[in-house]
Amino acid sequence: MRHLLSCLLFLLAALTAEAAARTDTLQQPMKVVLVRSNEKGCEPSCPEWIMAEGKIGPGTPQAFVDMVIKARGRMDGAKPPVILRSPGGTIIAALQIGDFLRAQGFDVGVGTTAYEGCSPFSPGCKLPQASDGVYRGRLTVAPSYCLSACPLILAAGKTRLAGTDAMVGVHHWGFEDGSGKASETKSSNAAAWDGVMRRIITDYLEDLGNAQAIEPLMETTPFSTLHVFSPDERRKIGLVTARASARTLTALSICATAAGKGRCILPGDTGPYRTSLLQSGVAPYDPPMAFTVMRASSPACEPVCPQWILGRGAIRPETPKQLLGVLGQRGAAKLPLVLDSTGGDLDAALAIGRLVHARGLDVMVAGSRFSGCAAPDAPCPAAALKRGVYRGEVQAAAEGCRGVCVLVLAAGRQKALEPGVLLRLHNPGLYVSRAIKGPAAGVIRDYLAEVGAGSGVFAYASAIPAGGERAVTREEALPLDLVTQGEGAQALLSPQGCAQKPRPGSCVRRR
Hints:
By secondary structure, this protein is α/β, with parallel strands linked by helices. Helices cover 29% and strands 20% of the residues. It is built from 15 helices and 25 strands.
C-alpha cells in the first residue's frame, strides 16, 4: 500500500506540474495522432511515432485503424511504434485495439510527447497545411502512465517498453452499465459479468502468449485501488520485453540503421516526391552526404600530394550549402570531387552540379580508405588528421553513383569512374523537383545542356523503362560523355601523378 500511495502521489504531482502547459488528459477522450521528432540533429530523416493519449472509449479502435492507415501510407507500409499515455477506459475497446496491433506487429511503449507548438488537446490548435496533419514533438519518459485497461494494449506489442519513470498498473475491470462506463457498483448479474470478462481477458492474454499473470492481479485488485507494477515485476510477468524506456523506439540513432526504415522518413515524404526517392534507390535511413577533405597517405609523395573532396552518402536539400562551405575553406584550390552516393534530392543535385561546373572541378566516382582511423566520425589519431585533412587512399566505391548523383558527375570538367564501379541511371521522368510543379524531365534536359554534358546521356536515360534502372559500366559511359578519362580515380589521384609537369590541380603542397 505504501508503494501504491507513493506512485499515486507521483502521478498527482506530475499532472499538477504540467497543468500550466498542457491540458490534463486523464478524462479527455483518447486522441490518436502521428508525431515527427523535432529533436536537434534529426533532420532530414526523423523518427515518427503514433501517440495515443487520453481515455479509451468505444470510438478509439477506429481511431487507431485510421491512424495506422495514414502512418503506413507515409512510410511505404512500414510500422512506426505506438506510444501510450492513458488512465484506461472501456476494456472491450482496449482488447480490440490490442488485437489489431498484435495482428499488425507493432511495437508499443509507454511515454509522453512534449509537443512543439500546440498539442492535439489544445483548443483551436491548427497545424500548418504543409505538416500533412503530423505534429512535431519530443518523446519523454515522465510523466507517463498506462493504467487500468491500458496495459492490455501494451501487452499486445511485438516489443513492449515502459521505463522506470512510467507508471503501469491494473485493477478489477469493474461492472459496466449500459453506456459502457465501468464502476465498482455490482449489478444483479455481477457474477455472470465477472465470468464473461474473466474468460475474455484470459483468452486474449493466452493468444498473446505473454503476461498471463495480469488477469489474476486485475481480478483481485479492488476497482477503487490500483496494483502498480514495479519495473522488475513488469519484466518478470512478460508485460515488457526489456527494462528500457520507450525512447529507445524513437531514438535518433535508429535512423542510421535498417531498423529505422519503419520509423524515420524524409521531409516531404508524401506523394510523387517520396515515390521518386524510393524508386531511385534512396532509403529513409541512408546517411546524408558528408564531405571530407582527403590527402594521399603515401609518404613518398610529400611535400606535394594529391588531395580530393570525398562526398559520401545521400544528397539532401542542405548538401549544396555544405559543399560550398568546404570549398570556401580550400581557397583557390580546385580539388576533385569524389562521389560515393545512392543519389537523393534532384534540386540539390542540380545545385551541386552547377557549382562544380562554375568552378571547373573534376568529378570522380570512387570510395576512399581512411588511414589511421576507420572514418571521419571515428576516433582518429592526431598524426592522421592535420588541418582538417584526412589521410587515405582511393578505392572502389561502396555505393557507386546512382540516380541524381549521375547528374553531378555529368557536370565535371573531367569525369572518371573507378574500374568495377557502376553508374545506375533512371528515366528522367522518374524524378520530382521540390521547386517546380509537374514533370522535371525538361529541367534535367536544360541542366545537362547548361553544364555542357551534351544530349547523349539524356536520350539514353529517356529510353529506360519508367520505374526501371540501368547499370552502366565505364566502357558504356564513355560515349555518353559521363566518363572522359580512360583511367580510374585511383590512377588519377596516385602519388606519382604529382611529379608530372604541369602539376595536376589535385596536387597540394603540405602546409
